């Protein structure tokens, strides 16, 4: 059975890989767990499009990672507005890596993958918080994100 993986499967492959597996493994495990989809011509074209988009966003080496790091560290005034509780200091919910990536993009920075953004726990209060972005092995940018109540 020919399948396209939608999630990382240990010993089999990464998302987007086209794999050949036994019928029972595909029908009874991979498909019900939504870890794969049946490989059709349309699905393979869609996977190729997704992979091209990922490669466009990908950091292509240490020099490119250092350029992106400098661009990120030049960003100033990185502010995220969120709803607060009655005291004005705690947030309803928390600020996620997706919110930080959107704020970086809105401030004129590069498009980043949410998995590269790391915070010290959940951001649940108003104030300035450190955020690190792992761009490449050995290259990490550190930003200050200001969270304000709104």
TrEMBL record:
It comes from Nakamurella endophytica. InterPro entries: Ribosomal_bL9 (IPR000244), Ribosomal_bL9/RNase_H1_N (IPR009027), Ribosomal_bL9_bac/chp (IPR020594), Ribosomal_bL9_C (IPR020069), Ribosomal_bL9_C_sf (IPR036791), Ribosomal_bL9_N (IPR020070), Ribosomal_bL9_N_sf (IPR036935). GO terms for molecular function: rRNA binding; structural constituent of ribosome. SUPFAM superfamilies: L9 N-domain-like, Ribosomal protein L9 C-domain. NCBIfam families: L9. GO terms for cellular component: ribonucleoprotein complex; ribosome. It holds the Pfam family Ribosomal_L9_N. Residues 13-40 form the Ribosomal protein L9 domain. Belongs to the bacterial ribosomal protein bL9 family. Binds to the 23S rRNA. This is Large ribosomal subunit protein bL9. HAMAP family: Ribosomal_bL9. Keywords: Ribonucleoprotein, Ribosomal protein, RNA-binding, rRNA-binding. It comes from the Bacteria. One of its GO terms (biological process) is translation.
